[in-house]
Specification:
Helix content: 40-55%
Strand content: 5-15%
Number of domains: 3
Distance between the termini: 121 Å
Number of strands: 11
Strand order of the largest sheet: 6-5-8-9
Number of helices: 23
Largest sheet: 4 strands, mixed
Length: 492
Amino acid sequence: MAFIEQNLKQKLDLRLSQKLALTPALQQAIKLLQLTVPELQQEIKKELLENPLLEEVRDFEESEADLKKKEEKKDLLHEKDLNIEDFFRDYFDDQYVPKNRNKEYSDNDINYENFVSKKQSLTEYLEWQAGINIEDENVYNAVLMVIPYIDSNGYLKVPEELKYKYYHVVDYLSAELGLDKGLIEKAIKEIQKFDPTGVGATSLEECLWLQCVYLGFENDEILKKMIYNHLEDIASNQVSKIALILGISEEDVKNYIDFIKKLEPKPGRKYSSEETHYIIPDVIVFKVDDEYYVDLNEDGIPGLKVNKQYAEMLKNRDKIEKETETYIKEKLKSALWLIKSIHNRQKTILKVAKSIVEKQKDFFDFGVEYMKPLTLKDIADELGVHESTVARVVKNKYMQTPRGVFELKYFFSSKLSTSSGIDVSAMAVKEKIKKIIENENRQKPYSDSEIVKILRSQGIKIARRTVAKYREELGIESSSKRKIYYRRNYEN
């Protein structure tokens, strides 16, 4: 009897429920960060058409009071703290207003419609990231050899017709390239650090997991098991089966599935289309006295705010149908997420641009020969973000400066050592090579070996093959071809 009474006592069970969500705000922030100005304009136009709670701020609505109010209430945008009723009480007039929207530009400004840029291929983008991030020459060369084997979706895979021969892509690449398997593995690990996140994966599972690690979920063992062991079960909606195997609730399983479905299964596909786009600067650098200042170019990006009339409807929710109330709430959150995401995009771009200008001040003062070595990691470490985040910021973004218009990635380059112990950027060395050749005796042009000697006399440690590589990147022919060209065109 005592045993029965003991078992009939009330119990208090404490259960930990896992809820995983790739929030719309985070999805939108990642997406908007890599958009160019024209692409951002198109995205905003699309959202304005689809969301009745989102509307454009007119010029006459921009006032000092509006700006003050926006500054005081910007912290209310955090999604986790959002309370719908509090929002409507205090916040329906808040808006995203680009600070340069009405800025006048002088006649000396460049007409950017005269500039077009070809969309960068996935291979070119990966090679650029390798060039500024990998210092070990053997690993760098291996990475350059592996990159062409990445398919249009961003994967490294053994060709179907050779799967009978090679079990793993490392074995295949080692045989194809004649490189040690350990070096191949190092090269693949380096590539997998690049943007787009998930590139260089050898399977769908690895691709999805690389994205989870980037988003900060590397310690979530349940998520890892879901991806590596249950993708087929997810595809067939076997929620109960997954819950039973993993020992979690069906609700938790559904949360994980929702998260996984929002990941990108083909990270390389956005680079597959060939197109051109107009160059419009995202940031503008100007000099006042001896100081450089960085400002965002927000000209043409409309200011956004929440439509007050629709928002007011929720104050009288007993007068509207439940379905209408749900719809308005969803559109409200969507509007807020967009406003916040644009704000975060602009803030991140500005931070990166300011950091670049600070580190490359000598370039702006004295020219290319004074360009300093700079990697994505340098900026990422300073700002406390991931390297691939910086890669997204600088890709297809342009900076208008007193020295001209440059793509942001122009300011990044690998380093070479000097006898003084001070590193010099590859970009600066290229400029030195260019000037050496421009001033050479046309009848007896310098060979690559002679250029090496000249550079070494200036304290720059460089190999002949590196000089040859830089010369080719500058579009300059070899000494023998330069000599022939001179004789044909200038000698009688």
